[in-house]
TrEMBL record:
<protein>
    <recommendedName>
        <fullName>HEAT repeat protein</fullName>
    </recommendedName>
</protein>
<dbReference type="InterPro" id="IPR016024">
    <property type="entry name" value="ARM-type_fold"/>
</dbReference>
<dbReference type="InterPro" id="IPR011989">
    <property type="entry name" value="ARM-like"/>
</dbReference>
<dbReference type="InterPro" id="IPR049796">
    <property type="entry name" value="CdiI_Ct-like"/>
</dbReference>
Length: 126
């Protein structure tokens, strides 16, 4: 499916078991949803952050982009993130050649700036 044709869908909570199975199987279609569900609904921000960090280097652009977007969700929901770990990933996303990843980099930068007070030296125009 083209990156510009994905439509919105409500994503709920995800269990550790389902997420771990998707990671083990490298199930792209599940992972691109799981990372959003975990970042929005999981009680443990460290677990959610760890999943986003791990998936921020996934081979599929939708999974990578959603992982970056997940950082913004965690910032909004938990108002916590490990800046030393996460900010460089968001900054790299802002420079990514893929529009989907770059767009979610902007979303995550906006959310971390708003909810966590982070600033970015350069924020390229989308």
């Amino acid at each position: 499916m083209s990156q510009s044709h994905r439509k919105y869908e409500e994503i709920g909570e995800w269990s550790h078991e389902v997420v771990e199975r998707a990671l083990r199987d490298d199930d792209t279609e599940v992972l691109l949803r799981a990372v959003i569900g975990v970042s929005m609904h999981h009680d443990d921000w460290r677990y959610a952050q760890g999943l986003c960090v791990r998936l921020s280097t996934h081979h599929h652009f939708n999974v990578r982009g959603n992982a970056v977007l997940g950082f913004g969700h965690i910032a909004r929901v938990h108002q916590q993130l490990d800046r030393a770990t996460v900010q460089p990933i968001i900054e790299a996303a802002l420079r990514d050649t893929n529009d989907y990843i770059r767009g979610h980099g902007h979303d995550a930068a906006d959310d971390t700036a708003h909810f966590l007070g982070w600033s970015y030296d350069e924020k390229p125009v989308a």
